[in-house]
Amino acid sequence: MKNQHGDSSLAAHSADVRKIFSVSRKAPNAVHISPPLARQPADPHAAILKHPQSPMKCSHCQTSIHVSLKSTGICQDSRGYWVTDSQICPACGKALIALRCVDPLGRKIAAHMAYPRASVRSAPSPDVPKIFADDYIEACQALDDSARASAALGRHCLRNLLHDVANIRLASLNQEITVLIAAKALPAELSRQLDELRTLGNYAAHPGRGVSSGEILPVEPGEAEETLETLAGLFKFYFVNPAAERKKREFDALKRAAAGQPPLNE
Question: Where along the chain do its domains lie?
């Protein structure tokens, strides 16, 4: 029977899910789950828990792909039925795995992306060097589980950025931010954001923040999120915008050359 969108794939997928939970009554040690799942959850809640014909972006490579799920029943507990939904991205070859718990009618009880860890933030631009992008992504992925860990990773990334890009190396992150703001090299909004982060994290009263890359210190409410937001702004200022300007100059130079015009004086 087709669904309201005229697509029978959802019903077929429901049949597969029912088979997953069909355990032989004759097996002496088998656990029979009754009643079986009646349908796919109507409320998808992770990137790969979409309708089988819906497009999505791979969380690894950000390529648009079509959903082709393989569902595997795990177990039943007091909350409901636990299922994994998985597929391999055809573009990058990496696995996408979601874990969900549903009731006997297939309605959502709980769900989350198991691999890669979901993040509400977009991946950094390819223009951001890998050494900074990796720390940023890890901080984003850690946020749901531990704001303290996310903030520590974010501070580590911020301090490396100040050392290697802004060329500011001092005894503490608080001092380095102070010098960067005083230099007036950043846009006013980004300077304000950095100052608010320093105030929110109380960096002056906690000079140890950011000094050791492995430390996990107490975190203020909202500090981890603000650190990620500030890093995104710094990435745009130091890497994304200059790369865009450089590409535009190169494109304009090619157009002038194609038109037989001399290059502009830089």
Answer: 9-23+30-115, 130-247
